[in-house]
Design goal:
355 residues; alpha/beta; Peroxisomal Thiolase, Chain A, domain 1; five-stranded mixed β-sheet; 23% strand; binds oxa(dethia)-CoA
């Protein structure tokens, strides 16, 4: 399988301390490498125009999506994309997969109901010494997993924790439903977390959820409430159901609020923020979040136009593509909103110069 490639980062964790004073004795979890993978097949708006009653103009103006990647091939699933991302990450950091202590996979489209996709990725990359599990938090999954992984590093117990965000959304998209099939794409990103005592890494987070939002965004069948049957298949209940407008309203408000909140909590002004790394569900939601933070468009990472909404993949894939532009000490605000409802924000001080 082939994906995009980026330059090998030059990592040095010697920190030049001209940033806000922090407790340097504290162990933090720093991202020290990023990997990514998107499938080769490009599903364009033009192709979707032939499949459902839609137009390139509607999709672009309402969502900002021009194309998305789709994983084709019998027997390939989320773990195959996650595996590629983790292999690349290990190569870039120059580590043997046997050094990985823990691997967490955020996904809404696991390979199987069980076992965890994290375990399958660990097996496929040869991370024989890693334990791990999946995190299910829809589009906020990567943030939930990142924060979870960071706590294992901060505790001092684990030195190399890999966090994967991977989804084969095409496996639960109904390509006759124009309301959802134009939005989603497939892809995977992964980051390596390692301990740092230099005041860089994941410095703060706010994670929230509200399960009453489940009525607006869910998959109706295939779980324990409604196991798969001929009836559920005929009724197309194994696909994403989304009532777009209420989700949009909740997303706009909550993603913007939680991003502004983490800045206020940590005394960060718009000028202090080098990058906003938002979940890519809708360009209009991203614009509203940036406006609320007072952050200019030039500081917003965007991959929605070419990858669509890859759910758990959006944020790590942004980091993967922008890695070469990131500098040690850059303040990044990661923000997401998704099914559940789930939402949150994370403040990261970037740990290395890529070039
Ligand atoms: O990632 C996790 C969380 N998810 C989100 O954050 C998604 C949030 N929601 C959204 O991004 C937007 O609600 C959508 C992009 C899903 C939909 O955009 P919208 O502006 O809210 O459109 P809508 O659902 O209100 O539909 C407006 C019209 C409807 O037609 P009528 O009833 O006005 O005649 C839809 O049937 O647009 C129609 N429509 C389409 N037309 C052309 C819906 N989908 C399409 C389509 N092409 N693909």
């Amino acid at each position: 399988m082939q994906g995009l490639t980026i330059a090998k980062p030059n990592i040095s964790l010697t920190f030049v301390a001209h940033f806000r004073e922090r407790d340097m004795s504290k162990i933090t979890a720093a991202i020290t490498a990023v990997g990514g993978y998107v499938p080769e097949y490009v599903l364009t708006n033009a192709e979707l125009e032939k499949m459902v009653d839609t137009t390139d103009e509607w999709i672009m103006t309402r969502t900002g999506i021009k194309e998305r990647r789709i994983l084709k091939g019998e027997g390939l699933g989320t773990s195959d994309m996650g595996t590629e991302a983790v292999k690349q990450l290990c190569k870039k950091r120059g580590i043997d997969p046997l050094e990985i202590d823990m691997l967490i996979c955020a996904t809404t489209t696991p390979d199987f109901q069980f076992p965890a996709t994290a375990n399958i990725i660990s097996d496929k990359v040869g991370a024989k010494n890693a334990f791990g599990y999946d995190i299910s938090a829809a589009c906020s999954g990567f943030l939930y997993a990142l924060v979870t992984g960071s706590k294992f590093v901060e505790s001092g117990q684990y030195k190399k924790v890999v966090v994967v965000g991977a989804d084969k959304m095409s496996s639960i998209v109904d390509y006759t439903d124009r309301a959802t099939c134009v939005i989603f794409g497939d892809g995977a990103g992964a980051v390596l977390l390692e301990p740092s005592s230099e005041g860089v890494g994941i410095l703060d987070s706010i994670l929230r959820s509200d399960g009453s939002g489940r009525v607006y965004l869910h998959q109706k069948a295939g779980g324990s409430v409604k196991p798969a049957s001929h009836k559920t298949v005929d009724a197309k209940e194994h696909y994403i159901f989304q009532d777009g407008q209420p989700v949009f309203k909740f997303a706009v408000t909550n993603m913007a609020d939680v991003s502004a909140e983490i800045m206020e909590k940590n005394g960060l002004k718009a000028d202090d923020v080098a990058w906003l790394v938002p979940h890519q569900a809708n360009k209009r939601i991203i614009d509203a979040t940036a406006r609320r933070m007072g952050v200019g468009n030039e500081k917003v990472m965007l991959n929605i136009e070419k990858f669509g909404n890859t759910t758990s993949g959006t944020i790590p894939l942004c980091l993967w593509e922008w890695e070469n532009q990131l500098k040690k000490g850059d303040n990044l605000i990661l923000a997401a909103f998704g099914g559940g409802f789930t939402w949150g924000s994370v403040w990261i001080k970037w740990a290395y110069d890529s070039k």
